Amino acid sequence: MSIVKDQPTCYLTLGALHGLYKPVPGKFKDYIAIPKANGYQSLHTTLIGPYGTPVEVQIRTREMHHIAESGVASHWLLQGRADARRSCRRRPISGCNRCSNCSRPRALRLNFSKHVKVDLFPGEVFVFTPKGKILGLPRGATAVDFAYAVHTDVGNRCVACRINTEPKPLRTELRNGDQVEIICAAHANPNPSWLTYVRSSRARAHIRHFLKVRQNVESTALGERLLAQALLGFSLQPDDLDAVVWGRFVRSCGAQSKKEVVTDIGLGKTAGRHRRATPRR
């Protein structure tokens, strides 16, 4: 809790804190501009500390603190019932005016706006890495989207996650302010089922690219085996075919390279053409 001398200093303090530490999206409340029904006033914000631990901060004046601790009735007794009523009626208006005026340094006003604007984008969620870095993702994004937002290799190798230090499935939808930790394994690969629940175009594109490359690699290996079996019927081995024969074979298949022919064989795309175009000794 921070108790300051006056109301403008509350906002100066808030801007300074947001400049030092990243605020948790959705956790900022301005009860000075809009007091609670019981007269309570204070600025509330939650920050990600230097070690990634969320810390809640309340900023208020000594008068506001007295009301928060003892209640508005005791404040009336100290300052007079009529004056207190007028003060309570003025606070919402004066608080809004002071919040929007230009009495604060420009750098602090810009920094303050930068961090509280996350509440103005309902189509996005803002989450944190374990080191406190903030990432913006489409609403409905999952831990897999987060992993690809961190790095492509992290996404390709992720096997599990922790959200707010608790183990969660990779398909878990993220909420504003979540702290996400991705667990990777060296030999893990993207799962095709991820495409059913990822929301970001980046994650979707990288998953599809990886699956396509892996499919081509596997299809090439299969195509080489199938071609070798086909050539056995002609008492040939793949190494028996020289560059000239391969060139005619590739052209007859309408392909651009030997690898493309072999990959298409593995995919079953040009089996018929390959049988008709089987090279002769």
* Gross geometry: rod-shaped
Named CATH topology of the largest domain:
Beta Polymerase, domain 2
Alpha carbon gyration radius: 32 Å
How does the major sheet shape up?
Answer: 4 strands, mixed
Segments where pLDDT lies below 50 for 5+ residues? Answer: 73-77, 88-105, 107-120, 271-281
Structural class: alpha+beta
Count of discrete structural domains: 3
What fraction, in percent, of the residue positions are helical? 40-55%
Distance between the first and last residues' Cα: 88 Å
Mean pLDDT: 77
The count of DSSP E runs of length 2 or more, i.e. the number of strands, is: 9
* CATH level-1 class of the largest domain: Alpha Beta
| Side-by-side strand order of the widest sheet | 1-4-3-2
Compute the number of helices. 11
Portion in beta strands: 15-25%
Query: What is the string of SSEs from the N terminus onward?
Result: EHEEEHHHHEEHHEEEHHHH
* CATH-defined architecture of the largest domain: 2-Layer Sandwich
Describe the structure.
By secondary structure, this protein is an alpha+beta fold. It has three domains: 2-120, 2-Layer Sandwich (Beta Polymerase, domain 2), CATH 3.30.460; 124-199, Ubiquitin-like (UB roll); 208-276, no CATH class. The protein has helices at 7-20, 62-70, 72-79, 81-100, 106-116, 143-150, 152-157, 201-232, 243-252, 258-267, 271-276, and strands spanning 2-4, 29-30, 43-48, 54-61, 124-128, 134-138, 158-163, 166-168, 180-184. The strands form three sheets. The chain has a four-stranded mixed β-sheet. Strands 8-7-9 form a three-stranded antiparallel β-sheet. A two-stranded antiparallel ribbon has the order 5-6. Helix 1 packs across helix 5 and helix 8 crosses helix 10 (258-267). The chain is rod-shaped, with a radius of gyration of 32 Å.
